[in-house]
Amino acid sequence: MILYKSYFQINLLVGFCFLGLILNSTFGTYSILIFLISGFLLLISNAEASFSSLKKNYFLFFIPLLGILSTIWSDTPFSTLRSSIQLLLATSYAILIADRFEFKKILNAIVVCFIIAMSMSLFSDNYALNGLTGEYSLIGIFASKNYLSINTAIAIFIAFSSFAYNRKNIPAIILLIISVMVLLKAKSLGSIFFVFFTLLSFFLVYKCRKLAFLKYKINVFFIFFTFFLFTFVFFSNIYKGTFDELFYMLDKDPSLTGRTYIWDQGIKIFQDNWFLGHGFRSIFHIGNSVAEDIWEYVKVESGAGFNFHNMFIEILVDFGVCGLLYFLILILMFFKQVFSIDEHSESTMFASLLFMYMLFQSFIEVSWFRQFSITHFMICMSWVYLSKPNKFFNKAVV
């Protein structure tokens, strides 16, 4: 049964879905309730098409289902189960929106949502104290400086992708300007670098993939990124003194604001259950010795939301080698999808940019597989867009 026959109704529900996730840090439970209701209404608007979409993209359900299974060995089974179900719902809603509704026709709703969020952050005086550095950082309407940076980057990629194919798209231009202003106001050198490096990498891949030798399946981007990563690791370890001096010259902490210590703790606890991990979101709870030690080290109150600030270590701790293997396969499949596109559209350009950005961020942040987060929601949508870049969308919902 098809309940909604106009894209005005669809855009309204999609907009509420996005606002519910984006404003989660500000409005909490009420915001998530709006997201859940809107997503459910979209799901039942054409239940047959929705379940068909979910079935086609089954690969994305591995982590949510493994999370539910991990309640068996988790030290906090109820928390793990709740987080896993939340991740499952967010994954499902993202898939059905991306698969059923054409990106162009819901783009304005998405742009408006981010304009609201970026405007609120731009005019916000909400700053947070970094316990290690003593610096105050702009967080806007988000829970932390990192979440502000990631959401701003997503907004820039959406606006850029839309503007690239429609130079008269006024909302996209407004979003791009506001997002860049937020990024500059945040004064985050790392965020500016990652956004710039992502855009540069995208254009490099787009141009280089058309060269003749790429027909022999030589992944230029993968080589480029591997070389960059190897160089970074080499110089940071072999020439650690020079590396530290460089960071001090930039007025930055060479420990990446305490991340190296947090990573060490993650590696140690991973070894206790190396194959299946400790369970989804089971570590950072009051009473856990590792969590309490990290909270004390970074000078935040016990029980504060936290993670290991490295996606690979986070996966190892939560799901062990089993989860890491899946994550690496997922990344390789994303690479394959990016390189299979002959001509980009707004959706595939955005999806490619987001994937590259999230991959780069994976070494210092945890953005994948975060329940009720816009980052996980958008990476799931990106998977669908890259999987079927030339798909004719289901017209039954219109």
From TrEMBL:
InterPro entries found in the cross-reference section: O-antigen_ligase-rel_domated, WaaL-like
GO cellular component labels: membrane
Protein keywords: Ligase, Membrane, Transmembrane, Transmembrane helix
Broad class of the protein's primary localization: membrane
Topology of this chain in the membrane: Multi-pass membrane protein
Occurrences of domain O-antigen ligase-related (ranges): 175-328
Keyword S-adenosyl-L-methionine part of the UniProt annotation: no
Pfam families: Wzy_C
Segments passing through the bilayer: 12-45, 57-74, 106-124, 136-158, 170-186, 220-239, 315-335, 347-364
Localization terms from the record: Membrane
GO terms for MF: ligase activity
Protein name per its UniProtKB record: O-antigen ligase family protein
Annotated source species: Shewanella livingstonensis
